[in-house]
Amino acid sequence: MRKSLQIGAAFVGLIVGAGFASGQEIMQYFTSFGLWGTVGGILATIAFTFLGYMLAQLGSDLQTSSHKEVIYHIGGRYIGFILDVLITFFLFGVAVVMFAGSGSTFHQMFGIPPLIGSLIMVAVTILTLLLNIKNIINLIAVITPYLMAIIFIILIYSIFTMDLSLADANTIAKEQGSAASNWVLGALLYVSYNIAAGAALLIVMGGTIKDRKVAGMGGIYGGIMLGALIILINIAMFVKIDVIKGVDMPTLELAAQIHPMVGVLMGIALLGMMYNTAVGMFYAFTVRFVQPEKKHFKPAIVVIGLLGFGASLVGFTTLVGKVYSTMGYLGLALIIAIILSWARKAKRQKTANAPEPL
C-alpha cells in the first residue's frame, strides 16, 4: 500500500501544476459552470481514477522506462507514432512553461528578477533529475500532502466566511470565463489535457513496480486525490466567488485573506507544484531518448535543462500557450486509445479463462 500511495501522490504532484494549484484552471473548467461545476468535478474524479489505473498497470505490465513502448502498444504503429511525437513535444513545452512561471512567481513573492528565478528552478530541476527515478517519485510525492493541507485550510475558511447565497454565487460564477461550452465537456477536456501531459511519467512510474495490482492501486489513489483537490478548490472558490472573480491566482488571493503567512505558504506550494511538474515532464522527456542507466543520461539532463532555460527566455512559452488547447484533443485521442486497448485486453483474458467446450 505504501508504494501505491507514493505513486498516487507523485501522480498528483505531476498533474497539479501552477494553473491547477492557483485555481485558475479550476475556475475555467469547473467553477464557471456554477453548481454544476461540482458535478463536473465528480465526473473528472471518475475519469482520472480509471485512466490512472489503466496507465500505471500498462507501465507495470511492460516494465518500461519510457512512455514510448506503452504508447505504441496502445495506439499501434501509426497512431502510436503520432501520439508519441505529440506527447514528447508537450513534455518539453510544459516544462519550459514551468520555468517561465517560476521566474514570475519568484519575482512576485520575493522581488527576485524573473531571469534569476527561472535559473534557480532550472538548476534545482537538473540536480533532482540526476537522482534515480525512485528518489524522484519520493520527492514529488512529498509536496502533495502539503498542498492538500493548505487547500483544506482555505476551504474551511471560505465556507465559514461565505457572505453570498448559493443562488447569488451561482449567478456570479456563470459570469466568469469558461474554457468549454458546458460542464461535461469542461470536465472531459480538463482530464484529457492533463492526461496528455501526465501519462508519460505515470507510465514510467508504473514501470518501476513489478506487481501490476500495486501499480494499478497507485493510479486509483492518484485519481481520487486529484478529484478531491478539484472538488475542494472548486467549492472554496465558488462560495467566495465575489472575492476572487477576475483574479489571476484565486487560491493565492484566498490564502492571503486568511493571513499574510498563509499567503506565503500558498506561494511556496505553487513553486513546489511548478517544481514537481518541471521535474516530471523533463524526466519523461529525457528517458524518451536516453535510458536512465546509460552513461549519456546525466549529460543529456544538463544539456536539455539548459535548452529548456533558453527556450523559456526567447518566447517559447507563447508558442506553447497557443497549442495548449491542442493538448485537450490529443488527450481525448489518447483516452480513446487507452479504453480500446483495455477492452481488447479484457476480451482476450475472458477468452483465455473461458472453459473449453466438451
TrEMBL record:
<keyword id="KW-0472">Membrane</keyword>
<keyword id="KW-1133">Transmembrane helix</keyword>
<feature type="transmembrane region" description="Helical">
    <location>
        <begin position="261"/>
        <end position="285"/>
    </location>
</feature>
<feature type="transmembrane region" description="Helical">
    <location>
        <begin position="218"/>
        <end position="241"/>
    </location>
</feature>
<feature type="transmembrane region" description="Helical">
    <location>
        <begin position="77"/>
        <end position="100"/>
    </location>
</feature>
<feature type="transmembrane region" description="Helical">
    <location>
        <begin position="180"/>
        <end position="206"/>
    </location>
</feature>
<feature type="transmembrane region" description="Helical">
    <location>
        <begin position="297"/>
        <end position="320"/>
    </location>
</feature>
<feature type="transmembrane region" description="Helical">
    <location>
        <begin position="112"/>
        <end position="132"/>
    </location>
</feature>
<feature type="transmembrane region" description="Helical">
    <location>
        <begin position="139"/>
        <end position="160"/>
    </location>
</feature>
<dbReference type="InterPro" id="IPR038728">
    <property type="entry name" value="YkvI-like"/>
</dbReference>
<keyword id="KW-0812">Transmembrane</keyword>
<feature type="transmembrane region" description="Helical">
    <location>
        <begin position="33"/>
        <end position="56"/>
    </location>
</feature>
<feature type="transmembrane region" description="Helical">
    <location>
        <begin position="326"/>
        <end position="343"/>
    </location>
</feature>
<protein>
    <recommendedName>
        <fullName>Membrane protein YkvI</fullName>
    </recommendedName>
</protein>
